[in-house]
Write a structure and sequence with these properties.
It is a single chain. With 240 residues, this protein is α+β, with helices and mostly antiparallel strands. It has seven helices and seven strands. α4 runs antiparallel to α5. The protein starts with a helix and ends in a 5-residue tail after the last helix.
Length: 240
């Protein structure tokens, strides 16, 4: 492991802890000697890292310091490249463009020796985008960020069309299908809607109550409870 990688690891270990981290714990997690940790702490402090503490007490990293230049491990870079490739091949053009821009920005600030890892071609993601929806997903994403309600013209499995007002909270990708999850005012419950069955949408510039992240937690909790209940019924169909 290079010294720059080791310094980055020491920083990450300190960030993971809320209180003082003994030098022996740092040495164990970083896989180096205690003497090396003392030298690395001194190096980081010399670079401007606000690290408080001393041998025998422990060390605390205060917020507000980043190692220059931006550093990632090889596995982290491969994860970023794989994620960007998946977004580029599986989502809409707006997110694909954003993913490519993000990778370009990361590559521009990486040390020269790490830049090839972003283009290793270690993984392949097929171009299997969900069925093209009739609506612009950028509008949906913006509505989620603003917490605006949406009016959907939604076509059911039998082809019938209904108007729904929903509080959009999440987009989901399952195999070749794209779903929109949200609170449905018509059903007074959480529902998921297949994007390819949405005929048209209209943004209602009215914020829905609460916080979107809290609604996501509620939706996930209810979904987990439903799956657990279904699993229990399947394992004990007689209910005895």
């Amino acid at each position: 492991m290079s010294k720059s990688d080791r310094l980055f690891d020491v920083m990450q270990i300190l960030r993971r802890h809320n209180g003082p981290v003994p030098g022996s714990d740092l040495a164990r997690e970083a896989g180096v000697s205690l003497r090396t940790i003392y030298r690395d702490i001194a190096t980081l402090q010399g670079m401007g890292a606000d690290i408080e503490g001393e041998p025998g007490f422990g060390y605390v990293l205060n917020a507000g310091f980043l190692l220059p230049p931006l550093m990632f491990s090889p596995d982290e870079l491969h994860a970023l490249a794989l994620g960007a490739q998946w977004v580029s091949h599986q989502t809409d053009d707006g997110l694909a463009y954003a993913a490519q821009n993000a990778i370009a920005k990361i590559g521009s600030v990486l040390p020269l020796e790490l830049r090839p890892l972003l283009a290793d071609n270690l993984f392949h993601v097929g171009r299997n985008r969900p069925e093209t929806p009739a609506v612009d997903l950028r509008i949906m994403r913006q509505a989620m960020r603003d917490q605006f309600k949406l009016q959907l013209a939604y076509r059911g499995p039998a082809g019938e069309e209904t108007l729904r007002v929903i509080w959009p909270i999440m987009l989901g990708f399952v195999e070749a299908k794209l779903f929109v999850a949200g609170w449905c005012e018509l059903r007074e419950d959480f529902r998921t809607f297949r994007a390819d069955r949405i005929e048209r949408i209209k943004v209602i510039e009215e914020r829905y109550p609460g916080r979107r992240r809290d609604l996501v937690k509620r939706w996930r909790t209810l979904a987990d409870e439903e799956r657990a209940s279904a699993s229990a019924r399947a394992g004990n169909p007689r209910g005895s």
